[in-house]
């Protein structure tokens, strides 16, 4: 970053946050490489895992902002790979419900276990209280940015409660890869 930009504390903070992305990819990269799935395949799988009830292809398409045809192609690939299963939908004859298979559940458990092992090992070098403090600070930053964007009338792409599924550690770690 140039001196003028770097001297702005807000932009310097953003730079550090973006650099953290690379660190997280280095730390957790093996979790994503193990699955061999494309980013869109992962996003569709996470949408199924994170949905409160089994979703349909059109619902996932709307949630992710992709055309139904694109999501349908990805779902077909995941069904062929025995990662997703289609179930009858009592509310719609053609829009099948999507559920993760036992294979997908096992992948999720393995990724979460490996992520927890890695995180616990890192906490031997960086204290849990310090992580908790940073988590609170980052949450406050996110909430302030969301409020600012909303006040300015700018489109809000995601919030802590909506947008791409970020509720599970598995989703977060796989999105990094």
Automatic annotation (TrEMBL):
<dbReference type="InterPro" id="IPR000835">
    <property type="entry name" value="HTH_MarR-typ"/>
</dbReference>
<dbReference type="InterPro" id="IPR036390">
    <property type="entry name" value="WH_DNA-bd_sf"/>
</dbReference>
<feature type="domain" description="HTH marR-type">
    <location>
        <begin position="30"/>
        <end position="131"/>
    </location>
</feature>
<dbReference type="InterPro" id="IPR036388">
    <property type="entry name" value="WH-like_DNA-bd_sf"/>
</dbReference>
<dbReference type="Pfam" id="PF12802">
    <property type="entry name" value="MarR_2"/>
</dbReference>
<protein>
    <submittedName>
        <fullName>MarR family transcriptional regulator</fullName>
    </submittedName>
</protein>
